[in-house]
Amino acid sequence: MKRPAATLAAHTVLLFYTALALFPVVLVIVNSFKGRLAIFRTPYAPPTPETWDLAGYRTVLGGADFPLYFRNSLVVTLASLALILWVSSMAAFALAEYPFPGNTLLGLYLALGIMVPIRLGTVSLLQMMVRLGLTNTLLALILVYAAAGIPLAVFILTQFMRQVPKDLKDAARIDGASEYRIYALVLPLVRPALGTVAVFNMIPIWNDLWFPLILAPAERTKTVILGAQVFLGQYINDWNAVLAALTLAMVPVIVLYVLFSRQLIRGLTAGSVK
């Protein structure tokens, strides 16, 4: 039985961390509904009838092509996640199921991608995309994000697939199921791991500014985070529009997080209770 003091201390720490993490998010949302002067005079106060102003949202929705930026971000994020889950789940199934020579070395080789930041290869990636004619295309971003996310995804999924009972797969083989059919049967059993991988990769891809700025800075391929930069000038910043753009940019990623959160929690807590 847990001690009440320890439980209270744990909840206090968790509540403090939650408040600390949510504070900048709430600050951005609250100030996005205020006028420019109110943002600087009373940044921590909620909007009042005197300070209420939707100028930022009018600028974002009317002065920039944000629907296109949102569509580009959604296409890049969803396509990258689909590619990561598809490739990494098949690689993890092979590593977990078939004890071939070099299995462990191949797993370690793929795990090296977790330790080496992909941004170190930015120059080489840019040169490769130029040679392939993929600059200023969404495909360039999808390929780079998939390459960055696959190593961690393979590592996580391999551990989960090794926990799937071997008897279940052997029974399917006895019934004449092909290896692809067994792979399809295993996927629903590792759904928490797939949700965990999706959430871990989704937020960095959606929020990334580095690769869209380098590989796809054209107007027709801008992502929503890169598009928000148009309101930041060299001398004058349109803070109303910046805060409104950031608030709108949070909505899709929050929706996707809610969709995957149940699987994420199940994936993180898997194995904690025997």
From TrEMBL:
Species the sequence originates in = Truepera radiovictrix (strain DSM 17093 / CIP 108686 / LMG 22925 / RQ-24)
Q: What Pfam families would the database entry show?
A: BPD_transp_1 (PF00528)
Q: GO:BP terms for this protein?
A: transmembrane transport
Q: What is its main location?
A: membrane
**Domain ABC transmembrane type-1 residues, every copy:** 70-260
UniProt protein name: Binding-protein-dependent transport systems inner membrane component
> Which GO terms of the cellular component aspect does the record hold?
plasma membrane
Instruction: Name the protein family.
Output: Belongs to the binding-protein-dependent transport system permease family.
Assigned keywords, A-Z: Cell membrane, Membrane, Transmembrane, Transmembrane helix, Transport
Report whether Transport shows up as a keyword of the record: yes
